[in-house]
Amino acid sequence: MLITTGFLLDRGAKLDIRFALPGQAGEVSVVGQVVWSAAESASRFRSGIQIIVMRGDAGSGFRNFFSRGRRDGLSPAAPAAAPSKSSGRTRIGSANSA
Predict the structure, then answer these.
(1) What is the pTM of this model?
(2) Which residue among 6, 17, 46, 65 is least crowded, i.e. fewest CB within 10 A of its CB?
(3) Is beta strand 89-92 parallel, antiparallel or unpaired with respect to 28-41?
(4) Res 42: pLDDT
(5) How confident is the model at residue 45, as a pLDDT?
(6) pLDDT tens digits, residue range 4-42?
(7) CA atoms within 13 A on the CB side of 87
(8) What distance in Å separates the CA atoms of residue 37 and residue 33, rounded to the nearest whole number?
(9) Per-residue pLDDT averaged across 73-92, rounded?
(10) DSSP 8-state code for residue 8
(11) How many CB atoms lie within 10 A of CB 75?
(12) How many CB atoms lie within 10 A of CB 64?
């Protein structure tokens, strides 16, 4: 997953992330780990995030989303990462998060 932030994320940092999948109600909640970060400008940074834990019904949300993509002729998705325990996480929510 690629995210853009206003600050540099440390490689290896674990993040609590919530976001909506297109065409699905509600948000999915995952834990991701930063695998790379790069400056796009002085105030804009991009980071690659590996999803390491899917919370609640996030797994079924992803399966539904990617299954719909296959039916629509889009390329198949890569398999999800195996869940693992994490600590010292940073929380990043969607724009709609409270």
Answers:
(1) 0.64
(2) 6
(3) unpaired
(4) 93
(5) 97
(6) 999 999 999 999 999 888 877 888 899 999 999 999 999
(7) 0
(8) 11
(9) 48
(10) P
(11) 8
(12) 14
| 44 sits in which H/E element | strand 44-55
Distance, CA of 25 to CA of 11 (rounded, Å): 31
**Six token digits for residue 5:** 């932030």
Residue 94 in this model has a pLDDT that exceeds 60: no
Give the integer Cα–Cα distance in Å for 70 and 80.
16
How far apart (Å, rounded) are the C-alpha atoms in residues 88 and 14? 7
Tokens describing residue 26: 């509600």
Question: What residue type is assigned to position 8 of the chain?
Answer: L
Cα–Cα distances (Å) from 15 to 42, 65, 70, 71, 86, in that order, read 22, 22, 29, 31, 9
CA separation for the pair 22, 38 (Å, rounded):
26
Q: Is-contact 53 30, C-beta < 8 A?
A: yes
Mean pLDDT of 56-69: 81
